[in-house]
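Handout, section B. The chain below has 188 residues.
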Amino acid sequence: MKQRLAQRTGLVSIALAVTLLSGCATLSADEQQEERTELNAMGDRTIATLLETQPEAREFLEQCLGYAVIKMQVTKVPFFGAGGGYGVVQDERTGVRSYIKVSRFEVGGGLGAQQYKVIIFFSDEKLLARAISGAWHFDASAEASAGDAFTEGHMNDSNEGYRAFRIGESGAVATVTVRVARGKPYLD
């Protein structure tokens, strides 16, 4: 009985999170410009913080074809998790910035909620193009984090062609999950 209640609570939590993350209305042109400005500032601040706290990242920034900075929020209940975020993708070859929305769903053991930023430096042209146009990502991992402390073990589809960094902001989580994430264009 308790297990079924926990499963139902988890499903309701996921449905609510997906609804909230998907948004209810289309943004006006002014609101879209404001959102772009905020995402650009978030991306610039995050890159500056990364270079300050992890100087080895400068080499990846200087050599990459482009990069993505994504602000994520994730909630994990005993068997399910959901989350999402928004970000900016910078094509270093052209200077063009694109904007993405990310949705994430996971199945497995764990509990917690967290906010963090992911920075991905692309050295593969096809991966950068997929980040801009939208792509699915699948992996299995175990992670533990609290605030800005983070550790993770991964089995993902590939780690060639990119280098990822993570900056924790708040929350705590401990999970062993299989997850799927989808990035898609935002603010076209």
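Note. The radius of gyration is 17 Å. Compare this with the example in section A.
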